[in-house]
Amino acid sequence: ENTQLKDIISHAKEYGFVYPSSEIYDGLQAVYDYGAYGVELKNNLKRLWWESMTRLNDNIVGIDAAIFMHPTTWKASGHVDSFNDPMIDNKDSKKRYRADVLIEDKAAELEKAGKEEEAKSLLATMGRLLEAEDLEGVRDLIVNENITCPVSGTANWTDVRQFNLMFATQVGSVAEDASTIYLRPETAQGIFVNFLNVQKTARMKVPFGIAQIGKAFRNEIVARQFIFRMREFEQMEMQYFVRPGTELDWYKAWADTRVKWHKALGIPEEKLRTHDHDKLAHYANAAMDIEFDFPFGFKEVEGIHSRTDFDLKSHQEFSKKKQQYFDPEVNQNYIPYVIETSIGADRLFLMTLCNAFTEEEQEGKKRTYLKLHPAIAPVKAAILPLTKKDGLPEKGREIFDKLKFDFNVVYEEAASIGKRYTRQDLIGTPFCVAVDHQTLEDNTVTIRHRDTTEQERVHIDELHGKLVSATSF
Ligand code: ATP
After folding, report:
1. 347 appears as a binding residue in the annotation
2. Is the CB of 303 under 6 A from ligand 1?
3. CA–CA separation, 437 vs 443, rounded Å?
4. Exposure of 302 by Cβ count < 10 A (0-12 exposed, 13-18 middle, 19+ buried)?
5. pLDDT tens, 127-144?
6. Is residue 14 in a domain?
7. 345 and 233 in contact (C-beta within 8 Å)?
8. Residue 286 counted as domain residue
9. What residues make up the domain containing 327?
10. Where does ATP bind (predicted)?
11. pTM of the full predicted structure?
């Protein structure tokens, strides 16, 4: 792991953002817990996504489907048969890898060395082989490209085998009656099986969308890069149901909307790019990733997929229940086509954290702070009385009590004001409000801005309005 990622991981742990799961037992691989500031940041990201989907679009509504679903769901969706990743082992180190990720890493290496054409053609070859399920071909490609194991340094590889990523468990307490069910590997199917329920009860007309945030589980072969690839994670997905034939226009429109959303979050243009898929999933007729320049290179944050009518059609076939919509405008019954936007809340969190993590030299001293958009910062303002006496704490509490109903604010009186500023910088608090003796006289306070460390004097009554405008997205 590179040093910048290491710094971010230790910052996340030390300042209450992310801890390894069940850490006292040495953790559980690829599972993480969110701490006091992490949960605030993650909730803010989720709320922002939810509001951008369901409030800004009067034709998108939300649902919250269960994690467990009827097992036939996953037959129909294709996950039982083909939600696999190609796995390969190195015979010397006994380490297991995802064959496609090994090749992708090689391509990234080539790209870095300026061999962009070679990288592209390597990825295209891999895409073709995987699509044809030519696992032997994938192994040959790894050998011919002289891809070696990062641990043993050798190219002594086993065959490539498919590995299904779904976690299975049993429902029912009596062994004979128990049946295998799965932890959902994506939230989307909860939306598809509820398509008609929602369409009818919320009286939706095509085109319309259904949004959902919820946990998904994948038994990832290699879990690495912190919360980038987890075995338990959260997805935020929106399925947009459209008239057949119009799907590619909607696909482009949604890709555009989503890229703009990331920029509005404060992600600079040069750290974002889109990447069209070389290999299409079994359900798609177009797919792209929105990628972010992580410390370990450009990687997918969000997928935009044109899923055709694959899912609804398949559910109709398996359930024997019509999944059609009557479109009064064209006087026709049809199964709608679907454009999906799918983003992991945890991956979005990691992108946000990587983008915000800032180390600067100031007067020969290093200053570390999180440059988070105020709309997503865990704490919006810290109320800090200069001293613990002369009525300053009481005044500070009064300000705190006025703001706490509308904003996540904190009140702190311990330690020097400088130390308290630093602490807020480390968790990304955009504003520190210092209460001093003058405050008692004229009700003004000093606001210290996180990014510039500049200070301004404002009246207490202005604080609420300033926070409202700063934290709006
Ligand atoms: P990858 O190629 O990285 O395995 P994918 O193409 O399988 O990802 P999708 O099935 O399109 O991913 O999932 C949509 C989104 O869900 C991804 O863009 C990512 O943000 C998130 N996601 C998928 N798998 C994981 C995971 N194991 N941990 C965290 N987030 C994930």
Report:
1. yes
2. yes
3. 10
4. buried
5. 999 989 999 999 999 999
6. yes
7. yes
8. yes
9. 3-83+165-354
10. 218-220, 228-233, 300-301, 344-347
11. 0.93
